[in-house]
Amino acid sequence: MNSLVGMGVALVTPFKSDLTIDHDALAKIVEFNIENGTDYLVISGTTGESVTITKDEKREIVETIIKANAGRLPLVIGIGGNNTAAVVEELKSTDLSPFTAVLSVAPYYSKPTQEGIYQHFKAVAQASSIPVILYNVPGRTAKNMEPETSLRLAQDFDNIVAIKEAGNNPEQYKTLLKNKPHDFLIISGDDDLVCDVVLAGGSGVISVIGQALPKLFSTMIHKGISGDKTAAKALEKSAMPLIGLIFEENNPAGIKAVLEQLGLCNDSVRLPLVPATESLKLKIKTALSEL
Length: 291
What we know:
By secondary structure, the chain is of the alpha/beta class. Helix content is 46%, strand content 13%.
């Protein structure tokens, strides 16, 4: 899956001030990323506020991105949840032909055992007609998918091709990298750790900050993959202040505040999220000007 090596970005869903979807802004963000070195686009993940998007809106978002992308970059679609039967139904009823892979988050809220997580993803793998990227984000799901479970899934199902690991745990990355099947991709979901992950053999990132700093961040990723530690670390150092700021209150309010500063969309988010505070916006403005 060479198309998933490098920098993917977890696209935001821009809203107008009335909280309807701003499709023009979405197309603009897609174009900005294509022009500046992003390797693939991820639709309807956490950063896209997928939990407050309706089915009809999701379909419209997909249509806008497919049209704006015009076949230039690989596309990954987020289809996941904590109701296994509903996830399976969505996989079977969605036209997956425009997509390179499905990104499927570990079940949240229910806190299943590791066997429950395994059985959930077994059902996902069997229902999906395209490759699957596992997504472990225990800060949001309240349950860590242990490396043993991820690796068991990677061994047992040919179409489970990668994991987006976002446990913010360097030791967990080391275990995955050491024991993974040869062609299984370890993709970081931690913007603050990814430089070390790719230098250690990881395949890249599905990034939040990347959509605002595509040229800088994608260059860092590719320098890291090629083993140029000095260049990668220098780029990481310049991006780190902004990475810290975008996660200071919540994601995606932080990244939307950055994108607003760049003139790409406004900073509206849907409840229960609220926009970044004025003090955070000021810090973001300062960090951007220093970049």
